[in-house]
Amino acid sequence: MEPLGELNSQLKTIYADAVLFWSVIGNTYLWFLAALLPIHDRRVWPRRSALDDTRTSYLQAAVGIGIGLGSVAGGYLSRGKSKWD
Hints:
Elements: H1 5-16, H2 18-43, H3 45-48, H4 53-78
Helix pairs in contact: 2-4
């Protein structure tokens, strides 16, 4: 059993389809930003502004809602170009 065999076949599938490739790149980038944002919000914002923990949490909630709405908008704007069979 090759541990990377399934990964290799999935990567070949992703590289073969340009729309799927850019969808994966965009999704990875958004998850990367979403992972970094809480660290930044909890350490930097309270020091540079007068935001307490409650208001910092509002910022995080707004970003989460924005990511969700952006994902839904991206689905509608793709107009069926990306199919997940």
